[in-house]
Amino acid sequence: MNIVLCNNLILITTDFETLNTSWMNEFLNHHSRGMLFLPKAVLVFRNETLKEVREEFLQQLSAHHAKIHDFNHEFFLRSMLKYGTQPIKIQLDKLQDPEIVKVNLYAYDKDTVLISLKSPNSWVLNYMRSAVRSICRERN
């Protein structure tokens, strides 16, 4: 894991193991509305209503990063909290092998579609939530 505090964002480069930790998943699930999905990355924008969730995430991230690199967690956390208003970009340091995800769509009418997955996949669900919300914003 690598964390870079840039002028305009917090850049986190990590692997799938860290990406799938409960604290990282919780943060991403809370912010699925304000996420932009990029190739090998997600960009999480600031959401004032989720300020406490973001601060908790930064504390856990700082503790995890400090443990890996053996340095002072509190000092690094203070530095990260100064960037509290900046977007957070979480990118993978390497791609995981592609996975085929079976998605079933059932259209009831032009405005109602049921989406079901053969097996649960939080990344597909987050992506679909984000995509549906952006489509709804475009229509209005």
Describe this structure in words.
The protein starts with a strand and ends with a helix. The model has no long low-confidence stretch (mean pLDDT 84). Helix content is 42%, strand content 25%. The chain has a five-stranded mixed sheet. With 140 residues, the chain is an alpha+beta fold. It is globular. The chain has five helices and seven strands, in the order ββααββααβββα. Helix 2 (22-30) runs antiparallel to helix 3 and helix 3 packs antiparallel against helix 4.
Oligomeric state of this protein? single chain
The profile of the biggest β sheet is: 5 strands, mixed
Shape: globular
Order of neighbouring strands in the sheet with most strands: 1-2-5-4-3
Q: Give unreliable regions as ranges.
A: none
**Proportion of residues in helical segments:** 40-55%
* Strand elements, count: 7
State the distance separating the first and last CA atoms: 40 Å
Strand content: 25-35%
Per DSSP, the total helix count is: 5
Provide the gyration radius in Å. 17 Å
Given the helix and strand composition, which structural class is it? alpha+beta
Sequence of secondary-structure elements: EEHHEEHHEEEH
Overall pLDDT level: 84
Tags for this entry?
two-stranded antiparallel sheet; globular; 140 residues; five-stranded mixed sheet; 25% strand; 5 helices; alpha+beta
Break the fold down into its secondary structure elements and pairings.
Blueprint: E1 2-5, E2 10-14, H1 16-19, H2 22-30, E3 35-38, E4 41-44, H3 51-69, H4 73-81, E5 88-92, E6 103-109, E7 112-117, H5 122-139
Parallel strand pairs: 2-5
Antiparallel strand pairs: 1-2, 3-4, 4-5, 6-7
Helix pairs in contact: 2-3, 3-4
